[in-house]
Each structure stands twice: as structure tokens, then as C-alpha cells.
Amino acid sequence: MWVKPQEVFIKTALWDCDETTLYFVLQRRKGHGKSKGLSSLLVGTLDSVRDTKPAPYRILHQTPNSEVYFVIATALTEQEIRLDWQWLFDNVCPTLHSFDTEEEITEFVCCKINSIIATEQENLTEDEDTITYKNVDYEFHQRFNMPKDEKLVCYYSCSYWKGKMPRQGWMYLSVHYMCFYSYIFGRKTSIKIRWADVTELAKTNSLLFPDSIKVVTRDDKHYFTMFLKKNETFALMQQLANIAMKQLIDDKSGTFNIDKDLLTKLSKNVPKKPSFLKRDLDARKQSNLYTLRFRLPQTEKLDGTEECTLWTPYNKRHNWGRLFLSQNFICFDSRVPNLVRLTIPLRNVHQVERADSGGTGSSGDSGSILITTAHHTSFLFGNISDRDFLVHKISELLAKLPNDVYREKATRALPREEGRGEWTAQPPLMTLFRTHQTSPIKQIQQKKEKQWEDHMSEVGRGVSMYQTTDGSELVVNGIPESLRGELWSVFSGSILQKAQNKGLYERLVNEALSSKNQANDEIERDLHRSLPEHRAFQNDVGISALRRVLCAYALKNPTIGYCQAMNIVASVLLIYCPEEQAFWLLATICETLLPDYYNTRVVGALVDQGVLEELTEVHLPELHAKLDELGMMKMISLSWFLTLFISVMPYECAVNVMDCFFYDGAKVIFQVTLTILDINREKLLNCTEDGQAMQILNSYLEGIYNEEAMALSTEPRTAERTIKIQDLIYRTYRTYGGSVTSEHIEHLRLKHRLRVVRQLEDSLERNTLRALQQDKLLEPNELQELLSAIREELLWAKRVPCERLEAPYEAYRLDYTQFKTLYTALSPWAKGEFAEAITARMFKVMDSDEDGAVSARGLSVCVGLATRADAQRRLRLLYCAHAPPLLTRQDLRADYTDTGEELAADAIAFFDSIENPTTPEPDASSSLHRSISEVCDDGNMEKSSDSTNTQSGSSGWGEGAITHTANEVRACAVWGVWSAASSPGAGACAGVGAGAGAGGLVPPAAPRLPRAHFLQLLAVLHDLTQHNLKLYEAVVLAGTLLLQLGELNQRRPELDREISQDSLYLAAAAKQPVELDPNGNATEPEQSSDSVQKPPPSPSKDDPDNGWSITLEQFLATILAQPPLEEYFNENISILPHLEALRQRDRLHSVS
Amino acid sequence: MGTREDEYDYLFKVVLIGDSGVGKSSLLSRFTRNEFNLESKSTIGVEFATRSIEVDGKTIKAQIWDTAGQERYRAITSAYYRGAVGALLVYDIAKHLSYENVERWLRELRDHADQNILIMLVGNKSDLRHLRSIPTEEAKAFAEQNGLSFIETSALDSTNVEPAFQNILTEIYRIVSQRQMRDPPEGDVIRPDAEPADVRPSQADSVRKQCCQ
């Protein structure tokens, strides 16, 4: 390994020279390899005393006339140093002769070595990313327009198959993207794929694409090839994709954080990687494997590992294996699989000491340490090459343990304080509800207990028992009932969780029982449907305990809450374990052993169905084909997995499977399932339909029996006996014990997770699209694009769609920022000065539950209405968005610093524009002119608007005036769209009661618009039409008319009805031929006013001070009477170009 | 595989759907085994049972798939709708929420089941008279509006359970046999056609004559 050239002065001290040339020397450290003698012994000692052990081989650079030597390479093995030596000869030596001076030679050599180091191994600094890496990082952000916070993880040289041509370039892997860039012969290839869009990653080797990595997204396939480190690259890609998928499952925002803690942990032993992040990911991966292997809490971070031996007292042997160290545990696993495994929680550690050899001469004596626990058990590790470091490290970790858990005393827990809760935790229900065992069964149980007692006297008891081959054999035979609780907790690691979270269960129960929520309701419904055949659950004692465990868990882990099947599993746990222990076992199952199984989409169970399918295909190909043909491959064993066989096998048999499951992990359920399928293969192959296959398996499972335990069912078992559970398990281990390993399962889970999550996403998207299409506003392709824009927006905000109960589109929830980005980009109304205001108002209309978020449908409807609906509906939406109580006085204030002034100013500007006919007057009748002047003559505009505002300010539109609720206004705003299926909850009964359900033929009444609100609306219209003179004039005209109408309404509120009729005529008069019906669906003036004047309450009557108002009908009629406006608001606008623009938008600038 | 039990003229797949705890499994066990357990395990994923009935001298084998009711299983259970020719949409007459959710279940069927699936709305637990929260008339009206048949049952006292299954199976049979008369079975495939009440059997082999060899 090349090292940065470093000066050394003494070339021979402690070193022997193996080879010497003019410019280079190859040296070997004394005490290594061949030479033996006093000095070599001395060096050996020195080395072990010092903390840093120098590598035993090195190459020096020398020049004949200099006393200064440079170390340029070091190595641990002779072979390695020889390689470097050879390279020097081949590459450097030939050129050295061309230099004149020795200084030049030295300079050249140092420079050469430095550059090798820089290119080959870009990281020498401990914690900072190297310069090279930073450059690449910069390039990466530039080339792909990445936001600043997108982190590059690693980059690799490779080729991309573009058509039949491989393009040499670089692959960049970042936290959310994989990218490829190449620039050859003036041709640029640039690819950018989001991990969340990847559906499949695979290593392939086909004729067409030899030895490549295949990346499949929903629209495309890419092949990359010629990797220098294909496996590393692939592993990293998988890991990143998986992180993306996990994010999609968990709905946690921004799950990915650099774990600084973890980073420093592994830095000592892990070879340097090009980036900080890459190291972090590697560390994360190793930690995951570690926690999985020893069933540790997932928060545990691996600190380091060390080869060593463990002395096992029961057979008096030293066993080679590896020691693992993390912040709370010391673990050991033997090199020979399953020989011995050990977990020592640091909190139990009492003493760590160097155990120097007593001279027994055994090989395990050098570098031994002895760890004694508080329970006076000792564990002896030997052959530790760096003992002092290890001892130091352990004491460091011990010192870091939080005080409250430090050194658990070997005493019993304090008796619970009385009266804290209304409940007491139950002991194993088995002990309260004894079953009468027949004497042969009793004997068997006693015999087993004896075996276990003997075994445990050898290997210890509790957390730190040696888990040995003998132990696993005993497990396979079935754990005796009395020991199940204890051993399940130890094997599963839940005992560690419990110890780390003292008192949590009690707190959770107290809180959970006092709260009321959906999870608790669901739990309540299932309490009696968990293990009804057991006497414990025919009784309140068991039921209450089950309620506590489930409710506490739902509270502890809201992402899971309560999922049916957990009740069944928990009830069995309660039979064997004390209540709190059962709770932690359940937690371990849900979070570690069967990850994501019980979450809101049962993702984990679906993933494992995929894994099972693949395993079946490999191990039972014929059967796989058959089951696939029957269409039941994916569903066959769902309940088997979800309930750990409890719901399909007699319960006294399923617990034997659970014994193995806790001991060996999730692979066991796959192995058992495969065995069951295998046994029934012939029968299944003869099936003609899915039901038949289902029945075969059901009756087989029901017929499994256990002669070593009492059947607890209150009803006799009627099923025909099929196989003894012990035989089934024995057969399982014999057939699949070796071939289906945990690593393999984990690997397959990774692979299938991609697919399952993608499918769920897709089906959610499909359902959403279908729902949105029912609104009949936007075209399907527009909706498709709109939805991907929404998805994109949510992904950028690091929020993922989370499936909710109501309707598919509710999964996509946009907060105001996201809504704004999309709405302003898409809606024709969100232009100009009022863009922000109108966006906020639309958001308010669509946020019907006022929770600060709008669903995908909300966006699609308000964009759709503005671009597709007829003029009436568009105007109604605009009108309602400005109506109280949606548009509140606060909103008016917020927009304009002072209530009156700006509005008034606006109004003045408005009327100025009318009075100064710089614009040619439209062909309006003279009466209209007169009416305008009337309005203006009526008084100073400023004054009048002022007075309106002050009035409204004081007594204003009091509570009495606003008789419309926000939701009524909303209903009116989107009438014709929303009515069909807006509130599914009430839908059924509403549909039944109201009949026809289609929302009625008449839109719900809209509130009258007070002056200030109307002016706002007018200002918006004004702003929208500015670009077009004709439109602008039309707005001015209509606006004037409406102001006049409002005035009329004010003057004679008691004549409300006639006035509004008058006003409609008046409006009609603005258009030469009286043709009020713009779309054929509006009505004649009289009818229209009739039909609409009845429903709306007339608040103005009670409130004479505040008479100025116009009605929706007046507004519609007046505006629509202007042909240019009618045309404008009827225009069909395609949003596709905007969507395209949105897609092309430079994300770099939009993300800070 | 030549036992008498396997002989049938028609095989119909029927699914039981509805909220958790409305008594789907109880209806199933009442119909297929004439058993009733006040307390049985909650259904996880799907369960399955069969029973054969006689209609017009033909043996109809009903394959009834009972599904988990909890919301989060919906995505999974909808996979089982495939090929079903009938559905019993069950609610609990004493639980208003389960009735309100009927609409959602209908949507679920529309989205995932064959278009022409025959649906029967079943108000279960009719024995709980004093707790009733959905009037029979209301449900009936709703069923009519949505083109569903309707019945109230009690798996506990066995009221109407038999008729419920009999009715839906008979109706399916009528439709299928009518169609068979019109277009004689060709390779056993029965295609859906324009008639509104058509029932499309799942696969080509859903309707089969004397399957045993």
C-alpha cells in the first residue's frame, strides 16, 4: 500500500533490508518473518507496547548522496510489498535515469507516489471528504441540477448501454438519485433516476448486455456495465433503493440523516471509502446485520469486531469466532455456524480484566480478557490480538452507559407501588388457568424441563446463556411449557428491550387506557376473537391483559397501531409470559422479526409472500408452476405468516413453531411453509381449482397434532390427524435448515420490497386517477401528469403519499406551499398581482376540513374548474371564494394594510378609468352611461367605501348576518363536482335519505357579497383581464353595473325581490339583444330569480346599516351578459404545456 | 378425486365482505356447517368454505371466500374478488358505521371485481332487535337504489341465512343457465354481453360439468 512519502532518518534501526537498489530499499521489520534473535524479540515487545503497530514491511526511497530516506509504501504481508516493489521497477525506475539531479528524482518519486495515492485511494483524511470527492460532488450537482442538499454517496466508472453502444462514463449514486453521465466524441448522455421510481435492480448477464447491472423503472430499462467494483456498486444501489422504499412505507419525512455517531464508530477498522456518506451507509448496513444476528435492539450501533476465541466451560474448549462490540453489548459468534453464540449486555458487566496466562500453555492464553458479570458469571475471551485496545474500548463504553441502567443489580425488581394504576400486570395466564394434564403429558413435560435444567446449568441462564448446538436441538424438540416465556424472551432479544425500557409499559398502559381512539375501538372488537378456545380468554382476567398489551402497543407504535392478527399472536404470548414480557415480545415481533408486517398496508406480509414465492420457485418448481396457475401463489400463506400459524394450526402445535421462530428468526416460517407445501405436493398438483388447494392445505394444517402438550380447546379436535408437530419441525430443519438462511431471506426481502411498494404506489395512483376522472373536468392524460407533478412535489418535500381511509386521492395531501407551487404553475387565474391572493383563496375553498392540507382532488378540481367548466361554474367558484365566511375580514386586512384605503384607492382607480374615456367606449347604451354617472354622482366613492368599511367594522356583518357556514359556501363553489361522493362517511345514509343523491338540481345558495368582498373579487377580475382591452372594458362595465346594483339593494332592502329582478333586467340591458342564457342552461331572468331568490336568506333585512350587497345571481347574470367575458370564461384551456413546464422546471432554484 | 362430494354442475365463487366484526365468518359457518360460535378468531387474510345446494335438480357448489374486514387488509382481500360471481356485502344492523361503510365496499367491488358481479346487501345480527340502528326500510331503499338485493339475517338464530345464500346462488344460476341456453356453451366459456344482469364467471372453468373424472 502506497503511503504519503515521509522522511525517516535511520534506515536500519529495527529493520532488516531485504532488497536494495540504487534508489529504493525494501525492508522487513525485525521480529517478523525469517529472522530470529534478540533484537527481533525486542522489536516485537516494543510493537506490542506501543499503541500503533507499524506494518512489518516497507519500501524506502533513497538517493546515494542523501541521508534522508522516504517511506513510500508499507504492507502487512510480504506478498503485498513485493507487488509494490515490482510496480516501482516496471514503472518508475526506467524513467529515473532521465533526471539530472538527485533532488529532481526525489521530487519526482514523491510526486508520483502522491498522485497514486490521490487517484487510487481518495481518502486519507479521517473525517473530511477529500478534495477529489468534493470536486465530483460539485460536478454532480451541476450536471444534474441537483438541489444543494442532495448528497452524493459514491461514484463509479462504468459504461451505459445506449442501444448497442456502451458509453463510458460515470455513475453517481446519491441519497435520492442514481445518475449517469458520459461525454464522448461530443455526445452527451445524461440519466437521472430517482430511487423511489426504481422497480427492479438486478445483476444480469445476457448475451446482449454482458455482466451488467439492470435498473428498471416504471417506464424504462437501463443497463450499466464494466464496473470496476460491480458488487460493491450493486450492494450500494440496493441499499439506497431500499432506503427510498422504506421511506415510502413508513411515511416518515426525511428519514435519512447522516448518523455522525455511527460514522466515527467504524472509522477505525473500515477501509476508507470515497465519501462520508458511503461510510455511513456501510456502517449502517453492518450494524443492521449485527443487530439481526444477535437480536439486539435496532438502535444498537456496531463499534468494531475482533477475531478471538471464546472459552466455553461446558465442553472446556476454546472456540474461534468473532467478537462484536457496540454501545450496549459484547457479542460473540463462533466461526463454525451455530456452535456457540453469546450476548453480554454491558450493563451486566461487573469487571473486565486482562487474564494473563497461568502458564497452562494452551493456545488461547495469549491476550485473554475475562469479563465478569453482576451475576458472577465469567466469560473468557482469548487470542485477542489487540487486547489493550479492546479493554480500553470496553471501559470507555462502560463509562458511557447512562447511570440509571448502569450495573443492574442482581436483585429482584421492587414490588409495584400500589394504587398507581387500576390494574395489575398478570403473570403468565397459563399459571392462572391450568389445564388438567394427563399423566403421560405431565411426564413428558417434566422430562423436558429436566433436560433444560441440566442444559442451563451448563450454559447459564438468562440473557448471557451460551446458545449452543445442544440448545438448538432442545428447541427443535419443543420447549417445555413452563420455560417458554423465559426462553422466548431470551432468544428473541425482547428481554433486552424490556430491560432498556423499564417502566415504559406501565406508563403506556395508563395512558392508552385513558384515551379513546380508533385503534382502541378496533382492539375492543377483537378481544374476544383472539384465542377464544382458551379458558383464559373466556374470562375477564385474560381479556383485560390482552386489552392492555394491545392498546399499549398501539400507543407505543402509531405507525402500526393495531392490526388484526396481533391480537391472536399477543394472546398466545400472554399464556406463557408475564404481561410486560408479552408486550415486549410482541414489540420485537412487530419491529424486528416480522418488519412492516402489521403496518397500515401490511407491506411486510406482502413482501414475504413474494419471498416465499421465489423460494418455492427454487425449491419446488413444479408446485410453484401449479399454484401460480391456480392464481393462489401469492395469497396462500398470508394468514400463516401473519399469525405465526396460530390461526391455522391447533394452537398447541403452533407454539412449537414459535419456539423455533424465536430461536432462529423469520427464516423458520419460510422453512415450515416450504415443508408443508412439499409434503402436500402430490395432492396439490392434482388440484383443479384454487378452493380445492386451499382446502387440502387447511385440513392438513388442522390435522397437525402434538402429543406432548394438552390441547386447550374446549371443543374436541375433530380434524383427521396428519402429522406430529415435532416430526414436521424435524423434517423442516432437515430439508431446509441449510438452504434457507437468514441472510438469504433478508436479501430476498430487499428485492421484493421494491416490487411490492411500487405495486402499492401504482394501485394507489390508479385508484386516484379513476376517482379524479369522475369529476369530468380534466382529461385523463392531464390528470396523469398532474398526479405525477403532485407526487414529485411531495417527494421533494420529503413527504410521501400515505394511504388513508376515506378515498384514494386523500393519500396525496398538499400543504399550502406545495399547493401554491402547483396551482400558480397551472391555473390561468393565478397570474399577475393577485396570483398569491387567489391561490390562498382557492386553497381555502378546497381545504374543506380546514386542516391545512388539500387533497389531490382538491387541486384537480380547482384547476379543472378554472380551465374546463362552463362560465357559470367558473364564476361561481370565483364568487364563492370571495364570499364570507371563506374570505374573512382578517383576510381582507391581511392583503391590505389598512382596511379602507387601498380598497378605496383601487375603486377610485377603477372609476377613473371609466370616467376618463381614454379607452374607446364600448357600444353601450346611453342609459348605461347614465347609470354609471348616477353611481358616481351618488357621492364620493372614497367616502362611500370608507363608510361601508367602518360600518362593517363596528357592527358590520355580525354573526347574524353570516348565515352560511364555510362548508355551505364550499359546496356552492364546487357544485356539480363535489356533490357526488364528497363525504363517503355520510354518503350511504345521505344517499338513502335524500334520494337521488346527485346533489340536487339547484346549486346550494350562496351568501351575498358585501362591498369589501365584492371589490376584492372585482379587483381580481380586473387583474385577470388586463391583458385584453375588450375583456377589460367588459369587466369595467359589468363592475359598474354591479356596484350600482349593490347600491340599489342597499337603498331598498325591503324590496329585495323586485330589485333583484330589476337588476337582472338591468344587467340584461347591458347586452343589446336580451339573451340571458349564455349556455343554454341558465334560465330566463324571472325563472332564474325565482328559483334563486327563495333559498338564500336575506341577511340584509335584519341589518339595514349594511345593505350593500350583491347576490351570486346578479353577479353571474351581469358578467355573463358581457359576450367577451362569457367567451373568456368558457374558453377551454389546456394545462398540459404548464405541466410540461413544471416538469422541466429547474429544481435547483426552487429548492433553497 | 371421484367422490360424490366433488360432483357438481356449477361452481360459483361468492365473496363475503363488509366491516370487521359484522359477522361474515359466522354467516359462513352457519351456512356451510350449521354452526355458530359466539366467539371465534378474527379472520386474517381470507378463509374459505364450500357447500353444495340443489337448484332445479342441478348441483351448485358454492365456494365462499370469507375476507378480513379490517381496513388495512383491504388491498389484500380485493385480490380475492377476482372471479367472484356473487358478493354478500354484510353490515351489522346495530352498528351504524358498518352501514355507512357499505358505500365504500361497493366502490371496492366496482374497482376490483368483475363488472357483472351480483351483490346482495345483508344486514346481519337481526336478533339484536333492541339495538337496531338501521331501519330495514332505509337499507331496503338504499339497496334498491343501487341495484342490490337485500335481506336481513341472523347467524346466531339462523334467521334467513339459508335464504340469503340460496337466493343469490339461484339468481346467479338463472342468469348463467339462461345465457347458456341462448348461446350454448362453447368450450365452457361464457362471455359477458350487453344484458345488465349478466354474471361473468371467473375463469373459463368456473362453470363446469361433472368435473370429476
TrEMBL record, chain A:
Region Disordered: start-end pairs: 937-960, 1074-1107
Recorded coiled-coil stretches: none
Alphabetical keyword list: GTPase activation, Repeat
Domain Rab-GAP TBC: 478-665
GO MF term (any one): GTPase activator activity
Entry keyword Repeat: yes
Alphabetical list of CDD domains matching this protein: PH-GRAM1_TCB1D9_TCB1D9B, PH-GRAM2_TCB1D9_TCB1D9B
SMART domains linked: GRAM, TBC
GO biological process, one term: system process
This protein's name: Rab-GAP TBC domain-containing protein
Species of the source: Manduca sexta
Lineage: Eukaryota, Metazoa, Ecdysozoa, Arthropoda, Hexapoda
UniProtKB/TrEMBL annotation, chain B:
Principal location class: membrane
SUPFAM superfamilies: P-loop containing nucleoside triphosphate hydrolases
Record flagged with keyword GTP-binding: yes
Domain of life: Eukaryota
Region annotation (Disordered) ranges: 179-213
Alphabetized InterPro entries for the sequence: P-loop_NTPase, Rab_GTPases_membrane_traffic, Small_GTP-bd, Small_GTPase
Annotated localization: Recycling endosome membrane
SMART domains the record matches: RAB (SM00175), RAN (SM00176), RAS (SM00173), RHO (SM00174)
Topological category with respect to the lipid bilayer: Lipid-anchor
Entry keyword set: GTP-binding, Lipoprotein, Membrane, Nucleotide-binding, Prenylation
Recorded GO MF terms: GTP binding; GTPase activity
Signal peptide extent: none
GO cellular component terms listed in the entry, alphabetical order: recycling endosome membrane
Sequence ranges of Basic and acidic residues compositional bias: 180-198
Similarity section: Belongs to the small GTPase superfamily. Rab family.
PANTHER family in the cross-refs: DRAB11-RELATED
Name this polypeptide is given: Ras-related protein Rab-11A
